[in-house]
Amino acid sequence: MSVGLQRLRDEPDMLRRATADKGEDAGVVDRALDLDARRRDLLATGDALKAERNDASRKIGEAVRSGADPNGIQVAELKVASTRVAALVTGIDAELATVQAALDDAMLRIPNPADPDVPVGGEEANVIVRTWGDPLPRDQRRPHWELAEELGMIDNVRGAKITGSGWPVYLGAGSNLQRALIGWFLDVHTRESGMTEVWPPVLVNADSARGTGQIPDKEDQMYVATRDDLYLIPTAEVPVTNLHRDEILEAGALPIRYAAYSASFRREAGAAGRDTRGILRVHQFDKVEMVSFVRPGESEAELEWLTERAEALLQRLGLAYRVLLMATREMGFVQARKYDLEVWAPGVERWLEVSSVSNFRDYQARRMAIRHRADAAGKPQLVHTLNGSALALPRTVAAIIETYQQPDGSIVIPDVLRPYFGDRERIGPA
RNA sequence: GGAGGGGUGGCAGAGUGGACGAAUGCAUCGGUCUUGAAAACCGACGUGGGUGCGAGCCCACCGUGGGUUCGAAUCCCACCCCCUCCGCCA
Q1: Which residues of A are tagged catalytic?
Q2: What separation in angstroms does the CA of A151 have from each of A173, A175, A334, A400, A419?
Q3: How far is Cα A396 from Cα A342, in angstroms, rounded to an integer?
Q4: Same domain, A49 and A182
């Protein structure tokens, strides 16, 4: 259940169109409608039979209580009737379980419809909302992997030895830069933006992976610890959003905002051979993620606010970037609206995605049963969830190295990070 | 990993195979009283689903999943989680 049965029944046309817009097979909508009808039918028959069975059992109870012999003929006669009904119930329940499972599966495969103003299409339909800073020309600049290797910051070869291709090792100033960025990001989010810091587990169970939508949509992108049936998280979004799974939040608790650092793991299945140099596409990377739980009416404003918080980091790092409103087929399963932040890397002359900020509306909340009470006496209603990276490290590191490189091969450290480097001003050849 | 104890409504905490969706207390909400508040008293108060215009009626849920039974919070089996002790360990 993700878009909700009510909506499935009320707006099937809209869901068919929205599903197709996201590049998915709209047939699931009709499959779900059909299963829902069968389920309700079975439910009605089953419930009626159960009522009959309960009634019969109640009569036996009353008879025994008023003195009838539990093993006598009178009770035996009563049992005959209720045994017959109980057998029917067993049959209906079995059929219902099958239909229910199929319906659950179908509902999990209906994507979250995109907001009405999201452009329909693929990459070509993305809209550049704004650009900040000046994308520097390449000039004599070199790609980050050359400098990082010369300065002993990143070792891909040894990473490949100890784990495999796409598992970089950060050393010396490279490691220090990771630590500086993580610390500074968290400091800004907690001290300036008031978010609560979280340090989550990096392995999660299947329920959690399903809650945020990694299962079944992105299952093959996750590493699985089969022996214990656990998944390595592809983003801190998974454990942090699941913090409130199956909870009813008290009135006045919202908004809840978290900032979490975690390592993130992605198999990058299907991307083998792409971006093999440097750290643009790796299996393990570090990221600080923002996660918000808000009242339904507040998620649109929250999306803009989270985007600003991510942008503020890039601005203070002095990196040129642009904000894209992503088109329907670029957006994935669970998002209703998504902004990508792309930073300019002059050494490779490319815009690199360093953040993705999304509004899920009530879609994840329904999967995870995260609700709140608008007031103390009110009925629980679903919250809206959002998240955004702020920021993913590897491409930010690449952009910093390429933007701040000097002709002599050293790298000037951005002002905001110097406190984390013992006030050093540059990373130079040892 | 071994031994023992335990998981029941927002919280605490009873619960004998049939009257139990579940006593009682606290919290919460509405009301009476009061100049106001407190106290006291009265009342309401779980979640999800089906059905009906509606009052309502029906079904399911006592950690999870199976089983026994006409009938399970209660009995049986498996698993998960928490607590105590022992062992191991960064």
Answers
A1: 266, 281, 353, 356, 395
A2: 8, 12, 41, 14, 20
A3: 10
A4: no
A61 CB less than 7 Å from any atom of strand B: yes
Q: Which of residues 342-401 of A touch strand B (CB under 7 A)?
A: 371, 376-377, 379-380
| Residue A204 CB partners (closer than 8 Å, separation 6+) | A230, A231, A233, A238, A239, A242
- Whether residue A58 lies inside any domain: the answer is yes
Q: Are residues A89 and A136 in the same domain?
A: no
Domain that holds residue A218: 123-427
Cβ of A263 < 7 Å from strand B? no
Which chain A residues in 137-196 sit with Cβ < 7 A of strand B? Answer: none
- A340 with A286, same domain? yes
Report how far residue A4's alpha carbon sits from residue A15's, in angstroms, rounded to the nearest whole number. Answer: 11
Average pLDDT in the A212-219 region? Answer: 81
Instruction: Decide which of A75, A108, A141 is a domain's last residue.
Output: A108
Residue with token string 């069975």: A53
Q: What is the mean pLDDT of residues A361-388?
A: 86
Using CA atoms, how far residue A183 sits from A125, A179, A187, A213, A290, in Å, is 36, 6, 6, 29, 14
**Which CATH number covers residue A279?**
3.30.930.10
Q: Is the CB of A94 under 7 A from strand B?
A: no
pLDDT in tens, A107-140: 988 999 999 999 999 999 999 999 999 999 998 8
What ipTM does the predicted assembly reach?
0.84
- DSSP conformation class of A113: P
A66 CA to B16 C1' in angstroms comes to 17
Location of structure tokens 């440097």: A278
Please check whether residue A129 is in contact with residue A323, taking contact to mean a CB–CB distance below 8 angstroms: yes
- Whether A283 and A371 map to the same domain: the answer is yes
- CA→C1' distance for A357 and B61 (Å): 37
Could you tell me if A206 and A215 are in contact, meaning their C-beta atoms sit under 8 angstroms apart?
A: yes
CA A292 – CA A188 distance, rounded (Å): 16
| Number of structural domains in chain A | 2
A33 and A141 fall within a common domain:
no
CA of A224 to C1' of B77 (A): 30
Establish if A116 belongs to a structural domain. Answer: no
- Shortest CA to C1' contact from A61: nucleotide: B18
